[in-house]
Amino acid sequence: MNRYYNSIFHWFNNDNAQYKLRGNNSESGLIAYATYILERLSPPHGASILDLGCGDGKILEKIIEIRPDLKCFGIDISPKLIKQAIDNTCQCHFEVGNVLDLKPFNEKFDIIFSFGLVQYIKHNDFIDLNRALLAKIKDNGIVCHLSIPDNRKKKIAVLSVLSEKHSTLLSILMLFLVHPFFKYNFFEDGSLWHNPMRLVKQMNTFSLSTISYPADLWYRFNMIIKKNDL
Ligand SMILES: C[S@@+](CC[C@H](N)C(=O)[O-])C[C@H]1O[C@@H](n2cnc3c(N)ncnc32)[C@H](O)[C@@H]1O
Question: Is 125 a member of any domain?
Fold first, then answer.
């Protein structure tokens, strides 16, 4: 594994990793995420879906609860998270691995999707990743990259979280103090938390169907890629 993905591996392969996965871990939050994903994927009855960067599998678990007809698969770079995923749901097939190498899966899928993964993929790997993904989907299948963090909205999201516990004035002061840590492109380009918008621009040069939805907190757009797009 190269140095970059090795750093992602260490970031997500520890005992606290489940707290780094998503903003809302409550039951209703997980159901909302699963619903959000299903609305955008619209999987046909009995479809096979692969979740790239599935983390602890809690969202796939909710997806199965809502749509028990689906055949769900997940892959994540973190063995610790995949162990939790296997403990969380026995109804999906999970593999440990880098999404850049889908050899662990022999089959093709109706839908391959990611939820909050793209910002961890190096810019230079993104086109190759999508070519490899398109090779792993069935005819009429789709690849979707969903719910990508919007760093500009992140400050607003942080402010709303702070305001729940503190007065607005104190929250603004605290936001001012923590602001350097939420700076756009805080890590090196293509690193742990980079701006995925550049990836979208990169993809636009390949005439992709890029669909924008209104932002909900810091999530703002979804990429849908079909066969022959690349
Ligand atoms: C922000 S979390 C989202 C997890 C999950 N999709 C969810 O929403 O609950 C990003 C996940 O992507 C995984 N990940 C990041 N880069 C990866 C890569 N190159 N290959 C496989 N998994 C990766 C991380 O281990 C982490 O579980």
Answer: yes
Using CA atoms, how far residue 143 sits from 43, 73, 121, 131, in Å, is 12, 14, 15, 10
The pLDDT of residue 219? 45
Please check whether residue 155 lies inside any domain of the structure. no
Q: What is the CATH number of the domain that holds 102?
A: 3.40.50.150
Pocket mutation for ligand 1, best pick of 21, 119, 121 (most atoms within 8 Å of C-beta): 21
Q: Whose CA is nearest to atom 16 of ligand 1?
A: 120
Name which residue sits closest to atom 2 of ligand 1, judged by CA.
21
- Ligand 1 neighbours, Cβ below 6 Å, are 5, 8, 12, 21-22, 53-55, 59, 75-78, 81, 98-99, 115-117, 120
**One-letter amino acid for residue 188 of the chain:** E
Q: Is the pLDDT of residue 220 over 90?
A: no
**Is residue 103 in some structural domain?**
yes
Greatest C-alpha distance within the chain: 55
pTM of this prediction? 0.80
Average pLDDT across the chain, whole number: 79
Point out the ligand 1 atom lying closest to the alpha carbon of residue 9.
Answer: 25
Which spans in the chain are helix H? 3-12, 27-41, 58-66, 79-88, 123-135, 151-165, 168-178, 197-204
